[in-house]
Amino acid sequence: MTLILGIESSCDETAASIVKDGRVVLSNIVASQHELHERYRGVVPEIASRAHLENILPVIQQSLHDANLTLNDINAIAVGNRPGLIGSLIVGVSAAKALAWSSNKPLIDIDHVQAHLYAASLVESNDQLTSQPEPQFPALGLVVSGGHTTLYQMNSPLEIQPIGRTIDDAIGEAYDKAAVILKLGYPGGPLIDKIAAQGDPTAYDLPRSMLKPGSLDFSFSGLKTALLYAVRGKPVGKGKNAIFKRDVEDLSNQQIVDLAASFQAAAIDAVIRKLKRAVNAIRSQTPELAPKSLVIGGGVSANSHLRERVKDFAKRYQLHLDIPAFAFTQDNAAMIAGLAHIHYHNNSFADLSLPAIATSKN
Ligand code: KG4
Ligand code: ZN
Question: Where is each Gcp-like domain found (predicted)?
Answer without folding.
Answer: 25-337
